[in-house]
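Can anyone check this?
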Amino acid sequence: MYRSDFSDLYFEGRIIYEKLFKQLRGGGNQSLVPSHLAFTLAEVLITLGIIGVVAAVTMPMLIANYQKKVTVNGLKAAYSLFSQAVERAVQENGSMRDWEYSYTDMAPKYIFPYIETTAIVKKYTMYTTYGNKDKYGDQKFGFLYWGGWSNGKIYSLKNGMTYSLIYDHGNLYLTVDINGVKGPNQLGRDGFVFNLDTTKDKLIPYAFGLPRSSLLQDCTKKGTWTYYDGMACASLIISDGWQIKDDYPW
């Protein structure tokens, strides 16, 4: 744009600016804005540019912080809801050590009666945190202890959460998707894994009690388990005082 173009824009803006103030103040021919107090078009454009840069820098951070708070609150709600359901299941069915374990779906007997399950959800993939490049390229991998990848099923709750209960080699895994099928459907973001602990007869986050370094390694995007990376993310958040810290693989 040439200098004359800027001049034309400046004078047009100045005229509109003064007319507006005259109307607000009841008319008159005298300019209400002393020339030494008025902003030039260049100054306005520079100010708007600075505001745009600041917004571009801060908005992603604000959005991420908000998403993290939503995630932590969702994890809290899921942990509380399913802990109460498992506690009631133990009260009515006895110790977990005496439950009827099967590789077929156990949720109808041990979860349905104690939590408002509304429907069976069409199977979808819950991804792990694994993101390394390997011989297959940069790929995502589905979590094996999720109903979409096993003989189990995925169920939905009235509050929009979905869950899957999977038994494998003596362990019972409960995975909860705190926002249902909306996405991103990834462990550590909206998917969190819990164990039904037969020694304590209670629900605990997977790997809870391990050193933080171990939890972080399991939750990281640079893990080595491929189909299981991210299982300890719930424990990491809870161990950090229900916070998603800066080194969390967000």
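Reply from J.R.: I decoded it. The mean pLDDT is 82.
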